[in-house]
Amino acid sequence: MQVILEIPDDMAELLVSKGQDPSRAMLEALAIEGYRSGTLSPLQTRLLLGFETRYEFEGFLKDHQVWENAYDLNDLEEDRETMQQVLAENRLRA
Questions:
Q1: What is the CA radius of gyration of the chain?
Q2: For the whole model, what pTM was predicted?
Q3: What is the mean pLDDT of each run of 10 residues along the chain (94 residues)?
Q4: CA distance 36 to 41
């Protein structure tokens, strides 16, 4: 499938590093989001990006600061709610 995006030049300058191929930058962004969301498996993401080995793929993830099972905002909210419950229980005991 071929997808064509039109992005204003000033926005493209913010999204794509100097010297980087804009098509590759957009493919990488799409692949990273697919991987982070769980839509794409590690193997699917690696193949989409054209990496032959898991080692190359892991290097790419590290370079882009993408971590498996990363702590996210949902985790933070759950921890905050748990902390509030614990504090409330401790106040009742005191």
A1: 20
A2: 0.68
A3: 89 88 93 92 95 93 81 80 89 80
A4: 9
